[in-house]
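Fold this sequence, please.
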Amino acid sequence: MKFFVILVVFATYIFAADNTQKAVDESKSKIEIKNITNDKSKKSMEQWINAEFGLQPYRTNYLLPLAIANRTYQSHTPGEVFKDKEAEIQVSLKLRVASNLFDLHEKYYLSYTQHAFWQIYTQSAPFRESIYNPEAFVVFPISDKNSIFQMRSFKFAIAHESNGQPNTENNPIYNGFNLSKSINYVYATLRLQHKTIISDWTFMTPYLGSSDLTDNPDIMKYMGYTKVKFSYFYGENMFTFMLRGNIASQKGAIEATYSYPLMHSTYVYAKIFSGYMESLVDYNHYITKFAVGFSFSR
């Protein structure tokens, strides 16, 4: 039954993605707008018919029905038992809200990413954790034609990341463990290109002092202040490699992914993660994990 649920979700997504360019919503297909004289009304109706409202993929959107860790996940809720196998789902979208305010061709965005860990292989199939990650950011394009690793853009972002759980520190049921985990941070990313290799060099730090780290005061020890990600395109194949860490604590994580197109906007997707902060609730637990499934953006 659980596999059936995953297959239904996946099939629905695939069907919708594969048919977006074939026909509009049948309930809207016969609506005529060519004789509408008010240009603003005509444009609004056209956007409504074509479902064009500016949302775009941000980070990779994926459904990974099988994710296997090197150890059993710890459950922080009494009576609930987790396994080392689960499913992963990530939905990530962005919306452009402004552009070129300083005549630098910059673009301003709002984004939302949700990353869920679903213990589909346990009896009650709960979500082990869902991470909510809204951002506001600006991207400045850079045209660099002289250096070997040519600069392509500079991004500055303000972000929040949390698991939406209540504070359980004073609840005796949880033995002093606080389910609530969150961080507010800013980061800057410089993007470079060398032929088919894209590299993103990122520096990140919390903001609002130490007060926003009360749920997890030592999180930067495991999250790290620096991150670099390489994306390599070879034919239709795409490989990525990410390295994140804190030099002082010598803790962090690495992640490698592979994707290959199957059909319109759908890719086979595989991911290997090893390190800290695979999820927020267990940010200080080291884990190695392999996951495979499908992505719907790159």
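Residues 162 and 182 are 4 Å apart (CA to CA). Confidence is low (pLDDT under 50) at residues 7-23.
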